[in-house]
Amino acid sequence: MDQLRDLQICQSLKHPLKTLFPIAPAPDYLLPDTCDLSIAMTIRLTEAELEEQYQEADEEELQFDPIDKLDTTLKFDGRFAQGWERKIDLREGIELEISQIQNRERVIISHPEIETHCIRCQFLLSGNAQSRLVSTSSEILWTWTAEKYWLNGTGSRDQLIDDIDIQPWSAIRFDIHEQVLRSFVSPSEEEMPRPLRHLVKPIDKEIYRCIRDIQPKMTTALKQILYCSYQGMVKRAYLESKVIELIALVFDHERTIRHGEVKKETLKPKQIQQIHYAREILLRDMYNPPSLAELARQVGLNDFLLKKGFRQIFGNTVFGELQTYRLELAKQLLAEGNLSAAEISRLAGYASPNSFSKAFRQKFGFTPTAYRKSC
Prior knowledge:
Elements: H1 2-6, H2 16-20, E1 42-46, H3 47-56, E2 58-62, E3 71-77, E4 81-91, E5 94-103, E6 106-111, E7 114-116, E8 118-126, E9 128-134, E10 139-145, E11 148-152, E12 155-157, E13 159-164, E14 169-177, H4 178-182, E15 209-213, H5 216-226, H6 232-258, H7 269-284, H8 292-299, H9 303-314, H10 318-336, H11 341-347, H12 353-364, H13 368-374
């Protein structure tokens, strides 16, 4: 049991995203050296100057997937920043990027006006930034923090100024061309649905831009992207399906917001803390979890609020969240390859290898044996 317990992560549940969505650890060869932040200062650069700095930095091109030349990782160490960026061209019109960067100084970047045919969505997993959209008539300030994503539509954009702090930040971003989006429009519709037309504008119109909260279902898809262990064609098909799933979730969230259908937060701050504490207890005692009534009593909530809170915050039932956690840990053990599937099923708390295999297949779409062979 100790081996599986050692793999438990995020025992501190003060931060919802860290709890539900631990950032996948980078390989050792990607981890940057520690920055000396005591001498940090503010640097102002144009986009072109920033690109020059990247070109002058010490760079090393690496590959997570040695059989996919369109999946590249660039590790860099420059004057202003260090970290890594992984770019995957999934197909013409769809690009995925995963990045983890540590700035040595606070960097203010001035981006010129642009015209774009792509919708861009970036999910911030950690860190924060500010953007100022500057036009001849106004200036709009956007604050972008962890647990949020920003969405850009197609069209033209005025000058943009990004203000990025010195704390480490990590993100997942995808770009999807409007022609790919239009391929999902049925012949009977002929054009984008009315609730989404503000996202796809002609090139001479100002783009739509917003910042939203990452929703629980989006978190699940983002986590699956980070922990994807497939290679080659299977990996590309899997990651493309996750990007399509994310754009569907983003569009649905946008539609509901535009129609005023999003329900306001009904849980109080203290209740949210109690829900996170309940999850901490549940995962800590995963081999002998308390009953629903006992768990509610321990955190000072009633059964109804406990169940409602889990669905609202984690997008799962109380014991569904426990099962998900067990299976994710079992998946990690399978990838490491040090234990048999039978041993892992026992460590994960399943009565038999058959029940473990069934639950694993329902969760991930393949058997434990098939997953291990793909690693």
